[in-house]
Amino acid sequence: MTQVEEEAWVAFTNVVSGFLGNKKDPEYGRLVNVMLENFEKLGCNMNLKLHFLHSHLDFFPQNLGDVSEEQGERFHQDIKQMEQRYQGRWNVAMIADYCWCLKRETKQNQKRRSTRRSFATKRTRYSDKRHTNIN
């Protein structure tokens, strides 16, 4: 690893631990600026997403990486069930199954709505117009 690459790596790890971790470093802006400068030395151009991140640093919450005990415990219980189901073998199907379980457990149910009106709706709307035109 060259000196420039090592500096970029150290800056990246500092941002991960001091900005994206559980506690935000008081000088997180400086950490991000140092990382961007080091990546620029490597020849990496700042893309639009990174520019957006850089210009909105102050809007990130203080506890960006916090996970509650309930969330952690729930994750371990779910993974334990998956390991039992897949007999301790980790593979793509197991991870896909876990993601599908998470998706099924969301409370938001979405229904497809027809773009067409029902017959009853048409009938009531038509009859209302007919009665108003007669009077």
Labels describing this entry:
mainly alpha, 63% helix, extended, 0% strand, 135 residues
Taking the alpha carbons of the first and last residues, their distance comes to: 87 Å
Number of helical stretches of at least 4 residues: 6
Rg on CA atoms, Å: 27 Å
Coarse morphology: extended
Proportion of β residues? under 5%
Structural class call reads: mainly alpha
Helix content: 55-70%
| SSE pattern, N- to C-terminal | HHHHHH
Described by strand count, sense and barrel closure, the largest sheet is:
none
The pLDDT mean sits at 70
Would you identify the regions where 5 or more consecutive residues have pLDDT less than 50?
Answer: none
Q: How many beta strands in the DSSP annotation?
A: 0
Written overview of the protein:
This protein is an all-alpha fold and 135 residues long. Among the domains are: 3-59, no CATH class; 69-104. 63% of the residues lie in helices and 0% in strands. It has six helices and no strands. It has helices at 3-18, 28-42, 48-55, 69-85, 92-104, 119-134. Helix 1 (3-18) runs antiparallel to helix 2. The longest helix is centred in the middle third of the chain and has 17 residues, at 69-85. The radius of gyration is 27 Å and the shape is extended. The termini are far apart. 4% of the residues are buried.
